[in-house]
Prior knowledge:
Strand order of the largest sheet: 12-13-16-17-18-19-20-21
Number of strands: 29
Number of helices: 17
Radius of gyration: 27 Å
Shape: elongated
Amino acid sequence: MTRSRKHSPKPKIQPGKPYPVGATVCPNGVNFALASGSAEKVELCLFDSDGLETRLDLPAKTGAVFHGFVAGIGAGQRYGYRVHGESNPADGRLFNPQKLLADPYSRRIDGKPVYGTAEEMAWYRPEDMRDNAAVAPKSVVTDDGAFDWGGDKAPDTPWAQTVIYEVHVKGFTKQFPDLKNAGTYLALADKRVIAYLKSLGVTAVELLPVQQHLDEYHLQRMGLRNYWGYNTYSHFAAEPAYAADAENAADELRRAVKALHKAGIEVILDVVYNHTAEQDSDGPMLCQRGIDNPAWYWMDGQGGYENWSGCGNTLNLARRDVARWAADSLRYWVEAFHIDGFRFDLGTILAREPDFRADGRFFQMLYQDPVLARVKLIAEAWDLGPDGYRVGGFPHPFAEWNGLFRDDMRAFWVWESGNLGKFAERLAGSSDIFRHSGRSPSAGLNFITAHDGFTLNDLVSYNEKHNEANGENNRDGHNENISFNHGAEGATDDAHILAEREYTAKALLASLLLSNGTPMLLGGDEFGNSQQGNNNGYCQDNETAWLTWPSENHPLQEYVRQLTTVRRQIALLSQQDAWWDGGSVTWLNTDGLPMSEQCWHNHGIKAMQVLMEGGWLLLVNAKKSRQTFTLPEGKWQEACAPSPRYTCSDGLCTVEHMGLWVFKDQAV
């Protein structure tokens, strides 16, 4: 049990400095700084190896920041804060110095809170007056200066050449054959893993959250775990569960980044600055809630939280100290881990003041920060708040997840919508969404599937979601998936159904990788990975959500390799990052003539040709039956085909099934 030191003299504490915020190792000790505009007093609590606690009042306050310097301590020192102030639940102030709080700038945390029962949760509740230092996790002072980067250099891949591969650190390699340290950061540095990524033609991995996270209290009650990691506890700490050695999690992640960079692969982190692990009003008080609750979170005016995140609370980045904390965190990942970019979960929240503002405080900070202005920034451009769907509304330099690309391409191929206009708009880069304010096509991040939803295999194998294992009676997850099982729900050995599924999957992959904009491939889609119809695997830390690697090469793998190769060869896609103007693309009907208004609006045709500068031709057949094309003039040779089931002669080409064929004019 934690005990207060009674006989040893307290170390001396000096005023120190208000910046940097957090715990900073100095030559002779550690500087501590914590922002709380509403607090009356902050106690710094130091813990020795026996759990003995020493409390020191932070002696100075500059603006909203309490600060102090303690000599004679350094990296490895465990600590926490007790924050005093006048509580008023009506306006959200919840001070309780009996609760030990983590530093929001913690780079490492010792321990993990457990609150799967009412009795366990009570230790972390603001109304509970018992001292919880015995069970509360402790922040740990760290020093990041020792890692040898050995001349590491960021790949700095141009947007036009970027192909993103979305994966989970653990799930990506947990079942990778005969791999040492499978499911860890170190596995990402393995030569076979990197060789596989290179063979696919991807230029960046987008990692699901690696910042330290917690399991929500409803999952703890059910004995489940938050697998995805979108419940962040410490925004500066690497998740220890993904490390072979938890105490060296940060350096293991650095080793992975260094190895990926050496192979020319960028590392993008999926990050969560829209809410914290403290959850809703029934959740635990771990950090921000007890430091300055109404400053950190958007309040509803009655002491509760605005739940624009859908996770119980919503961070208020319109507040200066909160915005600085988020920017400091991002900058830390770039400087200390050499991260190449970030994808912001529920990104609309970042710009709420409380309405969405593209010129808001946080975006201005990112725009002018010399470190963050040079990395890739990607937004999930929606949230659950009022007017939260903002796709196309984010400012340069953000790219945005293009949900309309996903939906329109799924409808075109999976449901055979026949909407050639929508297909062409999405293929050309979604100018209806992104062509404004000097933005380029790469601002649209195209995807067919992502971690949230069906995998590609399940998209063409299930009509309905099957999320019973999540413990919510199949109520969770999206109901509208634009999916089709092709005649049987789930796994089947029917050869005809399997062939139709393969053709549809290949058509979707070709549309993704041959569209103008930035493509993102969900890890495992290239070999038919399935979650058995679960479209919300956030709590499935098991074989359901881990990638199931095939025992032999899957037909989709080679097809993806062919597509990324062709993408690199088409200058219009991989070099220019330009809108398709001035005759760079000609849209032709199946007779080889320019598309007429009648053709564009006839949803029964479901086929067209796309003639691209440089001598490239796409044949598009979005129906399951045979289609004959009259080819434009040229010496055409197949460059990439979904199957050999086609014949070409005398200027005609007949394809036998759904798909997208690529031809190259040998005369150009």
